[in-house]
Amino acid sequence: MAKMERCPICNVAVKPENLLRHLSETHPRHPDTANLLEELKTDPGRIQRRTAGRPLRVRRWQVLVLLALIVGGLGSYYIVQAASHPPSLPCIGGEGGQVYHWHSQLTIFSGSAKIVIPANIGLSVFCIEPVHTHATDGVIHIESDVNRLYSIGDFFGVWGKPFGSPTQMLVNGSPVTPSATVTLNDQQTIELHYDSFSP
Ligand SMILES: [Zn+2]
Ligand SMILES: [Zn+2]
After folding, report:
1. pLDDT value at residue 128
2. I need a surface site. Which of 158, 162, 173, 194 has the fewest CB within 10 A?
3. Closest-lying ligand to the alpha carbon of 140?
4. Low-confidence residues of the chain, pLDDT below 70?
5. What's the CA-to-centroid distance between 142 and ligand 2, angstroms?
């Protein structure tokens, strides 16, 4: 059991670590309160006890240091990403593309397993490539600043994967001879089947 003290003003029994709070909350206007609080605050034992019971205080500089670490970490991640995957197509000036903005739905099977196509293929802090993904939904965004077409092979180039030898290729549901030169169009579906494919 904690040792009890008595409040010098009202004589109620108070735990030592609660006396400061009791004085300032119960007797805020008593003429002796200010002096008593000053005295109690200079008692190192009491300050320590109070501090030990306090909830964790997060200071502003600690938040800033944490933010700096996160931003720095992300920055170096993107730098490493950008350095290891130099853009295979010229960067566009901004999200959306000045000439057109199309979407093509790509589905890839490895055997019978549907592959998850990664998000942010072709995107870095330094470059938006005209053929890229935003999410893991398989939607290829084709956003061009220039009047030209891109192929599924261009997308694999941006991704950094060989197009390889699909066993089957469907464009808008119709089988075609598998080829990396198939043009990317708006509102198109492309389905590729491989014996084995690792994203
Ligand atoms: Zn985009
Ligand atoms: Zn888009």
Report:
1. 97
2. 173
3. 2
4. 1-2, 44-54, 77-85
5. 7
Q: State the virtual CA torsion across 186, 188, 191, 192 in degrees, nearest 10.
A: -30
CB atoms within 10 A of CB 140: 25
If you measure from the C-alpha of residue 39 to the centroid of ligand 1, how many angstroms do you get, rounded to a whole number?
65
What pLDDT was estimated at residue 81? 60
Contact 20, 37 (CB under 8 A): yes
pTM over 0.70? The answer is no
CATH of 100-194, one of 3.10.20, 2.60.40, 1.10.150, 3.40.5: 3.10.20
Q: Assess contact for 160 and 89: CB atoms under 8 A.
A: no
**Cα 154 to ligand 2 centroid, rounded to whole Å:** 16
State the average pLDDT for the chain.
87
Ligand nearest to the CA of 121: 1
